[in-house]
């Protein structure tokens, strides 16, 4: 690892290269899975789309393919594009093809959205599914709110600082009543998406942000450094788990505009 730093309730790990980052990410997720299965008997994980999925790929290789207790995994999407499940844009398809077709997850534990209804209906239905699984304790409930407490939510970040499908200056950032909401005007195509809201993300036991490449360096700086009041508030900066742990996995180009003081804190 090139550098690491702990500040308040978040930790940053900056890696020399993507290979090293992927190994560390697989180790970290495997450890969280083991701890959760030991404590609760299950591991409820929610994923986003984008490059983080291929960066999670080592989880499906030795030794993790054999050591992770895959049948205890319950898989969700922190955001999903409202397209058919077999469409190239589907986050479900991406994760299935790259990860879950390679390890013995239980098909009925994989909770993808209903792709045959509108974005609004898909969000409502997805929230209903999550509510049922909170009732049956597959997903825990937050100690501080009525929100679900996922064992882990894995997020990427766009170069505009968006996370999940929570985009800068979008009213979706203010949604606090719903657990899952929808947008029809995503600046990143495709336009129709469902997304966990900030209260749900911030209620998780663990949140991981996986961000690589120099096109993200400005947004990483805005998300993590002590920015002035005239700096734009990027959604990634609003990811602040109430009780849970926040971990950023970065490569050196993505971390290139961070204040060096981050690493001595
Ligand atoms: O479905 C999506 O589009 C996402 O969930 C989105 O939030 C993604 O994670 C980021 O845009 C980062 O994507 P990249 O890592 O590919 O840049």
From TrEMBL:
GO terms for molecular function: 6-phosphogluconolactonase activity. Pfam families: Glucosamine_iso (PF01182). GO terms for cellular component: cytoplasm. Its EC number is 3.1.1.31. SUPFAM superfamilies: NagB/RpiA/CoA transferase-like. Residues 18-248 form the Glucosamine/galactosamine-6-phosphate isomerase domain. It catalyses: 6-phospho-D-glucono-1,5-lactone + H2O = 6-phospho-D-gluconate + H(+). It comes from the Eukaryota. PANTHER family: 6-PHOSPHOGLUCONOLACTONASE, 6-PHOSPHOGLUCONOLACTONASE 1-RELATED. Pathway: Carbohydrate degradation; pentose phosphate pathway; D-ribulose 5-phosphate from D-glucose 6-phosphate (oxidative stage): step 2/3. Keywords: Hydrolase. The keyword Cell wall biogenesis/degradation does not apply. One of its GO terms (biological process) is carbohydrate metabolic process. This is Probable 6-phosphogluconolactonase. Belongs to the glucosamine/galactosamine-6-phosphate isomerase family. 6-phosphogluconolactonase subfamily.
């Amino acid at each position: 690892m090139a550098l690491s730093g702990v500040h308040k309730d978040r930790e940053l790990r900056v890696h020399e290269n993507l290979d090293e980052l992927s190994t560390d990410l697989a180790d970290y997720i495997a450890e969280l899975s083991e701890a959760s299965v030991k404590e609760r008997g299950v591991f409820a994980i929610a994923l986003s789309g984008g490059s983080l999925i291929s960066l999670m790929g080592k989880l499906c290789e030795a030794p993790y393919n054999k050591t992770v207790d895959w049948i205890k995994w319950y898989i969700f999407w922190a955001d999903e594009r409202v397209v058919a499940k077999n469409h190239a844009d589907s986050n479900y398809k991406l994760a299935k093809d790259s990860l879950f077709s390679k390890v013995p997850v239980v098909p009925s534990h994989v909770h993808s959205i209903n792709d045959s209804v509108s974005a609004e209906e898909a969000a409502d239905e997805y929230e209903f599914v999550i509510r049922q699984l909170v009732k049956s304790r597959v997903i825990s409930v937050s100690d501080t709110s009525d929100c679900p407490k996922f064992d882990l939510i894995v997020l990427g970040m766009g170069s505009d600082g968006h996370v999940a499908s929570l985009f800068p200056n979008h009213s979706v950032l203010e949604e606090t009543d719903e657990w899952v909401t929808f947008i029809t005007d995503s600046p990143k195509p495709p336009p129709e998406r469902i997304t966990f809201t900030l209260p749900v993300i911030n209620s998780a036991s663990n949140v991981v942000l996986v961000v690589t490449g120099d096109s993200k360096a400005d947004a990483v700086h805005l998300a993590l450094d002590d920015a002035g009041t005239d700096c734009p508030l990027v959604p990634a900066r609003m990811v602040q788990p109430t009780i849970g742990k926040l971990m950023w996995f970065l490569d050196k180009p993505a971390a290139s505009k961070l204040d060096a003081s981050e690493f001595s804190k």
